Amino acid sequence: MNLTERAGRRRRRRGEQPVVPPAEFESYYGRPVIKAPSWAAPDIAGYFFLGGLAGAGSVLAAGAHLTGRTTTATALKVSSLAAVSLSAAALVHDLGKPSRFANMLRVFKPTSPMSMGSWLLGAYGPAAGAAAASAVTGRLPRLGGAATGAAALLGPAVATYTGVLAADTAVPAWHGAHRELPYLFAASATAAASGMALVVGPTDENAPARCAAGLAALADTAVTKAAERRLGMVAETWQEGRAGALLRAARALTVGGAVAGALLGNRRGAAVASGLALLAGSACTRFGVFAAGIASAEDPRYTVVPQRERLDQPDAPE
Q1: Residues 95-149: pLDDT tens digits?
Q2: Comparing C-alpha atoms, which of 287, 283, 278 is closest to residue 60?
Q3: Is the pTM of this model over 0.85?
């Protein structure tokens, strides 16, 4: 039963007769009310995922560095450098010209997620590079330690600012979840970094990563549910089609990877398998959220949600 039929039934129960035809909330000739982002999914969704992996990986690398888990620390520093490098490459590819990224650094605007994100990458990249270079070569350990700390301090912002960036748009599936999206990206990034630690680190050093994976899976599930409740009808874009399939796969992979890591992470093969599942789950989360945003922008129904949901409320005035 659609919304118009529900509204008609409520009127009939009250003994009312409509004086005008039922309203149909549609856009002009069915065209989208807003323009969908021109971002390419492999570039920008990949940029979201790789940035999260890099930022959260630096935090785990710093923890491993401080607790003497040197093999895991070195591996995570290298993986974070590789991830942020690929993330920057994906962004530049989407922009079309490398000079456009450089031009973004000409402005420092604290109220702009795009401006702040550019400066974050500009500061985080060298810190991650110095930390990785020192860990691999064994040279300049004090400088390497300082760079590790700097990357860890910037890491949470690098991992989550893309959620703020997406929520700052007019895209219904992103903007409607503006409170939850950064937290979802944080949980997803933590799952990815924990998965990387399980894959590249020895089993006798992976206890913190296994714990972090479990917390990330719990947070991911809880925040996703909260976002869907807040979105109301727009949550359909998170539950149906390509986005729905990706996000369901993300939950299964993240929870499954976390459980397998907790129970069997002391075995090398199981640790690698659970780590790969966590990495895949994080990637599916980013690509799923991206797909939901594009679907909501292209469908004119989701730009008139306030009016439609107002009719759907039993006690709403007619």
Answers
A1: 777 776 666 767 777 777 777 778 888 899 999 999 999 999 999 999 999 999 9
A2: 278
A3: no
According to DSSP, residue 169 is labeled S
> What token pair was written down for 16?
């009312």
Phi (first) and psi of residue 191, to 5 degrees: -60, -40
Give the pLDDT confidence of 236-278 residue by residue, as tens digits: 999 999 999 999 999 999 999 999 999 998 999 999 999 999 9
> Long-range contact list for 142-148, CB < 8 A, 24+ apart?
145/65, 148/58, 148/61, 148/62, 148/65, 148/73, 148/77
Per the CB < 8 A criterion, the answer to whether 79 and 200 are in contact is: yes
162 Cβ contact partners less than 8 Å away, ≥ 6 residues apart: 47, 48, 51, 52, 117, 185
302 exposure class (CB count in 10 Å sphere: 0-12, 13-18, 19+): buried
Q: In the block, which residue shows the tokens 């399939």? A: 245
